[in-house]
Each structure stands twice: as structure tokens, then as C-alpha cells.
UniProtKB/TrEMBL annotation:
Pfam families: G6PD_C, G6PD_N. This is Glucose-6-phosphate 1-dehydrogenase. The keyword Methyltransferase does not apply. Pathway: Carbohydrate degradation; pentose phosphate pathway; D-ribulose 5-phosphate from D-glucose 6-phosphate (oxidative stage): step 1/3. Its EC number is 1.1.1.49. InterPro entries: G6P_DH, G6P_DH_AS, G6P_DH_C, G6P_DH_NAD-bd, NAD(P)-bd_dom_sf. Belongs to the glucose-6-phosphate dehydrogenase family. The gene is zwf. Substrate binds at residues 180, 184, 218, 237, 342. The active site is at residue 242.
Amino acid sequence: LTLENNCIVIFGASGDLTQRMLIPALYKLYSHQKLSSSFAILGVSRSTYDDQSFRDKLIKDLASDDNVDHESLDKFCEHLFYQVMDPENKYEYKALKQRIQSIETALKIKSNTLFYLATPPSLYSVIPQNLAAHGLNIEDDGWKRLVIEKPFGYDLESAIALDKSLYQDFTEDQIYRIDHYLGKETVQNMLVLRFANSIFEPLWNSKYIDYIEVTGAEDLGIGSRGGYYDNAGAMRDMIQNHLLQVIAMVAMEPPAVINADSMRDEVVKVLQCLKPLNEDDLKHNLVLGQYTKSHVRDECLLSYREEKGVPEDSRTETYIALKMFIKNWRWDGVPFYVRTAKRMPTRVTEVVINFKKTPHPVFSANPPDNKLIMRIQPDEGTLLSFGLKKPGAGFETEPVAMDFHYSNLKNSELLSAYERLLLDVLKGDATLFSRSDAVSACWEFVQPILDYKKNKFDLYGYAAGTWGPIEAEALFKNGQTWRSPC
Ligand code: BG6
């Protein structure tokens, strides 16, 4: 897929996402000559800037990086523009349209426009409607694409309503829903590991796999995002989107070819097989927790309820552990244990495939563990652990490992998730973007938990900086347990 000249219009241009993620990613692509020969980035928001002050603000962090080439940064800045506007005011879109056209004419850009909504979700319906009212959704003279960031809705009902509203003016092909986990090299690598290697795929089913763990642990608390997080909780923030997408990558069937339709058809098929959670699951297979104050080394870690923007009686979960199943031929009876939390001892995202023990213990009563660990971050790589003979007399076994680290590869600089996804959307490749039916399938699966939380429910405390409430141990049976990643 080739990259045509284009104009990227970022709504919410004065916000955090634009400054921290989008502009650094676009600059990196630019400095690696991955953007088209002519392009423009037009920032839009209510804040008062002009082109120059916008450029100065955005590149402040980049310019202070010692490794940055200032000449190329200055050249990049020439592509940045700014327009003050209230995105809720439909009358201001006429001026926006004119500005886009004048930039396109000046830079000789064909009318290919990407509208990136780095705004609060409350604007996800309004902006597309206003764009359409001014014909900015029409693809007569070039493509028009819309990027939206999670959360896609707040629950199943609002997600369906959001799609309905978007579809009034844009087609599914024009809509790119970003789940940045799909942009991670190591998440995509799970497909390659499974489907490009005949040593793994034959074992990838309920006959050989005992259970699967998915951990998304963060050591940080919620920082300054109390207002957002308290309405979301770990369920909406991490499970509904990122971790269910990871599970889809682990559990899906091989696509016939790698393209947007084929891949996303397989993703949705497996998500639609998630076993619906019933009352018994909510009681026995779900543990919700919230971090409490603690002292780790010399640091005093606040409790969640003491964080800025969080009500002091909040019952929002910062920890969730869930035992779930996939009801299909491949996975029948294999438990998937998923956990995610803020304020754990370390930051680690990984998937652990725990293989079954050999059927007859020849060497010792307890055959060695066979585990395949896919480390998504931060130490990206793959670890296979198994047993070998202990040197010396007899036939005792001892655990050994084969450990691959991406950092050992030559030329191993990984594209960040935003770099990869921005490049894909500019090329028109939707393979790594969430399709509407997959988003709905995820909401459908988590909706019983959201309903359960509306009533009285158990919320367990865990000291900040620990692995979560001990009650989560009760999810496991028959010697299954979490791997300790550090
Ligand atoms: C975001 C969540 O979507 O993902 C954050 O809103 C979370 O709360 C983040 O910290 C995790 O992303 P990553 O790439 O750091 O694992």
C-alpha cells in the first residue's frame, strides 16, 4: 500500500494525547522518511494558539531530547498548522473547510484527509456530524478517514448508539478505532509465533494446554486521571478492550490471508465464542479490588480513595481478576485467567501458556512445568520453560529455559504502537483496528460485570505495591496459579 499526500486534522490538539503520543509518533515517522512527500498536520481546539505558538508548544519535549536532529525537527514544524475552533459549533466548520483547502493548495496536497478525534468521547458523535454537514466526509476527490480512540461507548447500549450515529455519515471502511494494544509489535508477534511455526500450533488447543494466564500489571497508580478512571475502573479501562483483544490474538483461528477482512473476521468469531458470564461466574470467578495506602521501601503510596479526583467513598475497582472460558472446539474447558491492576509491584504485560503435564510420570512424581511466556512489555520477548535431566546419576529433572529478548536482535528498534497505527491508517490498512462487531462482542461479554457492579458487590482491598487481594487465589483449582513475573 502506498502513502498518498494527505492532511491530518487533529481535534483535541492542545491535549495530552496529541503532545505525548501523536506528535512524537508523527515526527518519528517523518524523520525515518515514512510519511508522504507532502503532508500537513492541522491541530484544532478551543485554546488560543497560532501556527507558531502551536509548533513551539508541541516540539518543546522533542527539542529537549539530545538525540534529536534539530534541522529535521524544524523542517517537520513547517508542516504543522493550527486553527482555533469550537468543535461543537457547527458554524465554525466552514472556516475549517476553507483552512484545509488553503493548506492543501499551498502544499499541493490531494484532498486526502484524516480526522483524528483526540477529544473526550462526548464529542465522538458531534464532530463527525458537523464534518458531514460541510461535506468533509465525501470521498469524491480523495479519501476521508476518521480515527477514534477508546472508549468506544460506555456499555453495550451506548456502543451501539455510537456506531449508529457514526454510520449516519461515515462508512465502516472510513472509521478506524484505535486500540493501541493491537499496534504493539509483541501482540502482533503472537500470531506469527503461532501460525508461522509448526512446533507450536499443533499443541495450541485443549488437548495439550492446561490453562492460560493474561496479566496486565502496572506499578503506577492513576496519577492525575482520577476523574476519568473513577467512571471507568479496570474493567472498562483495560479488560473490555486491550486484554480481550490480546485474548483474541491468543485464541483465534488462523486467517486465510493477512488483510483487514480476513483477520477481523477471525477475531470476531472467537470473541463471539466467549462463554457468557452467569451468576455463578460473577460470584466465584470474578474478584474486584481497590488499592489501599501502603509504604513501599521509603515511599508512601496513597490509597486509591486519596488520589486526586476520586471520591473518598469510591467503589471503583483498580484490580480485576477473572476466570473465563471460550466455548468452541479448540478451547473447550481451558480456563483463561485474566488480571489487570494499578499499583502492583511492577509493570508487566504477559501471556502464559501452561501446557499439560506428561501423562505418565517416568522420572519423578512431579513432571516439570512446560510454559510458554509471551512477554508483551516491558522486556519484550518469548520464554519457553521445560525440564531436562539433572547432570549426574539417576534421572532427576530440573527446569531450564530458552529465552528470547527483542533487545538482542540487530536493528531491533520497534515501532511504537502509535507509529505503526498512524502509518497503517494513512495507508488505509485497517487490519490492526477494532471493527464494530468486535467492539460489540467485547461489550456484550463484559456487560454482566457492569450490571453486577450496579448492585451490592464485594470489593477487596490490597496494599498498593502488592499483587492484589488474596481472595483472587480462590479462582484457581488443581495446582493452577499465576506465574510470578518478577
Ligand atoms: C490505556 C489505559 O488505554 O492503557 C491506561 O487508559 C493504561 O490506564 C494504558 O495505563 C496501558 O497501556 P500500556 O501501553 O502502557 O500498557
